[in-house]
Every structure is written in C-alpha cells, then in structure tokens.
Amino acid sequence: MPQQTDSRHAPATFEPLLTWVDEIAQLAQPDRIEWCTGSREEFDRLCQQLVDAGTFVRLNPKKRPNSFLARSNPDDVARVESRTFICSDQESEAGPTNNWREPAAMKAKLQELMAGSMRGRTMYVVPFSMGPIGGPISQAGVQITDSPYAVVNMHIMTRVSDAVLDLIAEQKTFVPAIHTVGMPLVDEEGNRRADVAWPCNETKYICHFPKTREIWSYGSGYGGNALLGKKCFALRIASVMARDEGWLAEHMLILKLISPQNEEFHVAAAFPSACGKTNLAMLAPTLPGWRAETLGDDIAWMRPGPDGKLRAINPEAGFFGVAPGTGPDTNSVATKMIERDTIFTNVALTPDGDVWWEGLTAKPPAQLIDWRGNYWTPESQTPAAHPNARFTVAAANCPTIASDWESPEGVAIDAILFGGRRATNVPLVTEAHDWPHGVFMGATVSSEQTAAAEGTVGQLRRDPFAMLPFCGYNMADYWAHWLHMGEILGENAPKIFTVNWFRRGADGRFLWPGFAENSRVLAWIARRTRQQDEAGSWISPLGLHPDVATDARNDAGLDVSGLELDSENLEELFAIKPELWHHETEQIATYFEQFGDKLPRALGEQLTALRERISGEHSSRFGASMS
Ligand code: GTP
Ligand code: SPV
Ligand code: MN
C-alpha cells in the first residue's frame, strides 16, 4: 500500500528535509502526500494508475513485455532552453550564455505560480541518488513532483530508494528539487475539473539556484524539464558543485573499449543533444577483435582518484534516449535493449500494440497511430514519431553494459572526445597537442541544432563542451576550471580529441559511414593514448590526424579497409581549407569577445596560435596524407 502520510509521519528524520516538504505542501496544497520508496510494487502500481488515467497505453505484452507508451501534449515535447534560468546572485555569475534571473524575484514568482498548483493531486516525495547510493562521487537529492509519469521515469533514470533518506540523515545534505506540471485539478473555489492525459502549463520555468543548490521546475512534464536528476541536478547544479569542489560534471557518454590484445581503454565523449552519444555508448565495433562495453550515455561525473587518474562514474541508472534513428542498422544494442521494460514517449503505435518510429525499419507499417494520437499511413505528410520521441529504460537492460558500470570509484578515463554535427570544415578526427589545446577545442565546438530543444533544427551554434544548455555558471569560468583541472591532473590527464561523424560531400550525403564504423576512429584514438611518438599520424594547423590505411597492414593509422570509400571521399573527410578556417577563427574571436576579461588567457593564446598556423597554410595546399 502507498504510504499516505503527511510529513509528521514521514519516513525521513532529517529535520530540514521535513520542513521543506511541509513548506512545499503548504504552498502547493496537494490532496495527499506520498513518500516514494523505489519499490517494484510502487513502480507497477503507478504504471497501472497511469494506464487507468489514459497517460499510458500498455503495449502488447507478447511484443513488448512490461512496456508503455505515453503521448505528451504537442506543446510539451522537449527541453525549453528559453525558459531555463540560472538564478545566481549576480548576472555575471550566470554569464552571457545563460538566461539569468535575480534569485529573490524569481523565487517570489515561482511561489506565486506554485501556490495551489497541486490542488486535487498527489504530491510525491522521491528520494534519489545520482550515482551508486553512498558512493564517494555520488550525491543525494529529493524530488517533489505531482507527476506520476515523472516518478516512474525517475525510478528508471536514478536510484530511487528510502535508503537515500538514511543517507541524507547521515550526510545532512541533499539537493531539493521541486516539480509541478502546473495544472491543479481543483480551483480556489473548490470546483474540481477532470484531468487530462498529459497535464502541463503554457507557462514554463526551469530554475536553478546555484548558491542554495535548489531546483524549481514549473509547467512541463517532459524529459529534462521534469526528471530533475538529469540535466537540472547532474549537470547544472553539479557543474557548480564540481567547480567548488575540484571535479567535473559533464554532458558525456562513458565507453569501455577492449582491444584484440585485451587492453582496456575508457573514453568519455561530449556531443550536443541528439548528436550520437547513445549510439557511441552502445557501439558494436566492426574492427575484428575489438569489443566495446557501455558505462553511460549522457552524463559523466569525473574526479581525480587516489591514483591521480581522472575517474568517471555515470550518475544515472537508465537511458532516456532518442527513438527516431534507432534501429538494427544504426544501434543494434539499443534496439535489443528496448525490447522490454521500456517507457516510450511520443513514438507511434502499431495496430498490434507495438511501437514504431522513423528509422526502426526501412519500410513503415501500412497504418499507425502517430505520436499525436491520429491515424497515420506512409502517405501522411508528418512524421509518425516526434523527432525528439524517447525511450526510458534501465541501464541494467543494456546487453553491452559493463560489469563495473556501478563501481562507486568509477573508471580511469584515457581519452576525452568533443564532437558536434558539422556538415563542413571539421575533420573526422583531430588530436589536441596538449590539455590547453584540448580545452580550446572543447570551448569552440559548434554544432547544427537538433530537435532535443526548441529552436531551428539545422542552425549552427556554438555549443562549448556540449554544455551550452547545461552549465550552471559563467561559461568562461567553466573553461578556467577545466584548465585548472588539467594542471591538477598533470601527467595523468587524458588525451583530448575532436570528432565529426557528420561531414557531408558536395552531393549532401555523409562522407563517413558512422555508427558501428566509428569503432575505427576509436581504435586509432585508443592506440594514441598509449603511444609516445607520432607514427601513423600527420599534423595540420588544427592538430594531429591519422594516416589513412586502406589496407589493414598499416595498423598505426586509421583502418578503413573494407569500407569502399574512394580516395576523394577520404580526402574530403580530412580536408582543411585555409580560407574557411580563417573565417572560423574570425567567428571564434567574435564569440570569445562576449566573455570579456573572464576569458582565460590560455584560450586567447590558443586562438592566436591557431590563427598563425592557419595563415601559414594559406600559401600551401593542405590535404590528407594517404598511405
Ligand atoms: P541526447 O540524449 O539528446 O543527449 O542525444 P545523444 O547524443 O545521445 O544522441 P543519439 O545517440 O540518440 O543520436 C541521435 C541521432 O544521431 C540519431 O538520429 C542517430 O541516428 C544519429 N547518429 C548517431 N550516430 C551517428 C553517426 O555516427 N553518423 C550519423 N550520420 N548519424 C548518427
Ligand atoms: C538532451 O537533450 O541532451 C537529453 C534529453 O539528454 S533531456 O533529458 O530531455 O535533456
Ligand atoms: Mn543529453
């Protein structure tokens, strides 16, 4: 049975937690309070409740056992960056790339909005841990929410447990995270209205208070707006904690790569939203003898370990992955992973109670119910699944999950990758000369926008470290923190690379086959992390690139044997056009200007050095060296 308690009968003992729950309950005025325990019984009961309420469709148990489909309100389908705020005391602490609000004024506004916002609903109190409960890199949080959809997703994405309450009592600290969909069922006069399948509010606020490490989210039920352990806590708040405490909270996948000689390499990679982290995290290498295992697909918390190496954990417990484009040919591991025990949001429903989305099969089913709940056929002019449709599934369900993925101490990172979606200019892979050069590469990543947030899909924007929407403080200070971490790590610092799977030819098609074939690039990177000399590589103004080996004999370079890429294609993949790069450096200079004197001097120096290397190339033609 649910624990129908008020906070006086709460299972928690930490007074500030009880006071906070009381305060929010008095403000939001829910009908009842339920303290969540994270049990299987709780999960099943809430899923059934969501089915009864019409939020969930239970999928055909023969086709997708223990799985559900939710369709959101069509206006609540992605993160809302324009409604995401960093409420630091000073605007300069949030910096030019964040939306800032004065904390007291924002708090007052939120209190006004949240007054009575849970009337007629249950207020769930969800204790959760980011990272293994009690681990040295882990952190505890409590989410208050009036969305049972958020609760069951939190069950999968984080470690929800009443054991966290004991930990909070012991550690005397937690991150308070308040969430409401902002749609009370009872008005001020006491009139009750019927609920809808996806309650939300037109008005949305996703607010972060770095000083008090609080999160307040109003009006949305979707993804990172509502599952507050993810972007709000594990990135925006945690990036501030990390700065203060000497670690890193990053928008990165974590992958274990195992060579034919059984050497293990760990790679952390930052790509912007919907730019291939889940795909790379679940890589099925095509290179003979190489294997890959998954540790995380979205967030990495990293700190120098007792051995001086940078140790990473995945603070999450599940994957909230993009469904469209996920299929047997692009991500066979994920396709297998979501065969059962999965919550799907905004995908299409088949007549036999299964799900479908663009990219799952080459040929769409003859008829579907689309993500809006409308009848759909292949002749329809709109996609069957929303481009940001997602699956929620436990990491334990991943066929390639690494046996040590829950190791509280984390794994030692050998290489850090930065990447984005760049149709032009950016080569397939580049190694940085050293840590400050790598930080410069991360700081200047740009990428074509995707459907993961509101905005114009395809529009190029700077997305430094893939953290543009997720950094809880001034981006220039964040770069300074990265430079500082490099000094602390010294000789133990991982090597840094940029990759770009998305370069296109003049005819518009991708020049690189991508997906599983990215293992070829990773194999070169892995070898580079143990290599002292530069055999198998060539240097451009941008950094170090692999020689391209069209036969497998040259095993120091990039093995492209069997790919059937002609030499023109390969050359284009690595082409660096001095005039275009001259233009890029101009844009970087303009971009850096907005940070004023907060811009770390080392990054200005990197830009100057890059400009000099580029202009040195103006006279000589540059191309990939083929072997
Ligand atoms: P978030 O969960 O939003 O942080 O995204 P993500 O970085 O995990 O993105 P994901 O792996 O889900 O990739 C999203 C899209 O990128 C899908 O449409 C994929 O098909 C596409 N994609 C991934 N890897 C590659 C690749 O190597 N080449 C090409 N061309 N597309 C890719
Ligand atoms: C992203 O947008 O980077 C995501 C999805 O991983 S969400 O959790 O909605 O932020
Ligand atoms: Mn993400």
CATH classification, class level of the largest domain? Alpha Beta
Q: Helix fraction?
A: 25-40%
Q: How many helical elements?
A: 16
Q: Main β-sheet: number of strands, strand sense, barrel status?
A: 9 strands, mixed
Distance between the termini: 69 Å
Ranges with pLDDT <50 over ≥5 residues?
619-627
Estimate the global geometry from the Cα principal axes.
globular
CATH topology of the largest domain: Phosphoenolpyruvate Carboxykinase, domain 3
In terms of DSSP E residues, the strand content is: 15-25%
Structural category: alpha/beta
| Total beta-strand segments | 34
> What are the bound molecules?
guanosine-5'-triphosphate, sulfopyruvate, manganese (II) ion
The whole-number mean of residue pLDDT values reads 95
Number of domains: 3
Q: What value does the Rg take, in angstroms?
A: 24 Å
List the helices and strands and how they pair.
Elements: H1 15-28, E1 32-35, H2 40-53, E2 56-58, E3 68-70, E4 84-86, H3 91-94, E5 99-100, H4 103-114, E6 122-130, E7 139-145, H5 148-157, E8 159-160, H6 163-171, E9 175-180, E10 205-209, E11 214-218, H7 223-226, H8 229-245, E12 248-250, E13 253-258, E14 264-270, H9 277-281, E15 291-296, E16 300-304, E17 310-313, E18 318-322, H10 332-337, E19 343-345, E20 348-349, E21 355-356, E22 368-369, E23 375-376, E24 390-394, E25 411-412, E26 415-419, E27 429-431, H11 435-443, E28 446-448, E29 460-462, H12 475-489, E30 495-499, H13 518-529, E31 537-539, E32 544-546, E33 548-549, E34 558-559, H14 567-574, H15 578-593, H16 601-617
Parallel strand pairs: 1-6, 3-19, 4-5, 4-10, 7-9, 9-11, 14-26, 26-30, 33-34
Antiparallel strand pairs: 2-3, 6-7, 6-8, 10-11, 12-16, 13-14, 13-15, 16-17, 17-25, 18-24, 19-24, 20-21, 22-23, 27-30, 28-29, 31-32
Helix pairs in contact: 2-5, 11-12, 11-16, 15-16
Bound molecules: guanosine-5'-triphosphate, sulfopyruvate and manganese (II) ion.
